[in-house]
What does this fold into?
Amino acid sequence: MPWHPQLWSKELWRFLRGHWWHLLLAVPMAVVVTTVHELAHAAMAKGFGAEIGHIWVLPGQGTWGHMSYTLAAPNPSAHFWVSLAPGLLGLFLGLLGLVLSLRSWGPRAGSVLFVWGIVVPLLEPMYALVHWLMGAENDGFGAFGEPSWIGAACTLAYGGVVVFLGWEAHGSIFGERALSPVPFGVLVLAVGGVMSLV
It folds into this structure.
């Protein structure tokens, strides 16, 4: 497609207008996503024989939620896997969504699958990694310690994989209603900007 920013902006606006209703789901789904995130920590901790102290799934004190656990004996390996559990679950759910995207979906169901079954699960680990690189003491810090150049390179590589998988799923789900590459890229940059600020 030749360089026609007006066409691309109209295409992007048309796509966003068809999916605006996900904003109505943002607050309740943030609680659902946080609950699943914290339960993934708890399940992994339980797998290492830990006692769960508490689970909190509402935003506050600079976090979306948190949970506490106590191991019978110090175990750095357990701490690593407990920190990584929500990211691994998000990756699994996103890949499952990608498999489901190969089926035929109606406009609303396809939109739900794309946003909440693929994009959000795949971006959940990305969100933690980006904020870890920005200095947050979150799951990325719990698993990997201080940010490093290797961590930045791995985060960038994971981001590239997420964009590629998102592009493939987007085309599969939306077909002729799918965005062309430039509007999709603009959408990716906008989502990345919002993720780094929230």
About this structure: The mean pLDDT is 87. The chain has one domain: 19-197. Residues 107-133 form the longest helix (27 residues).
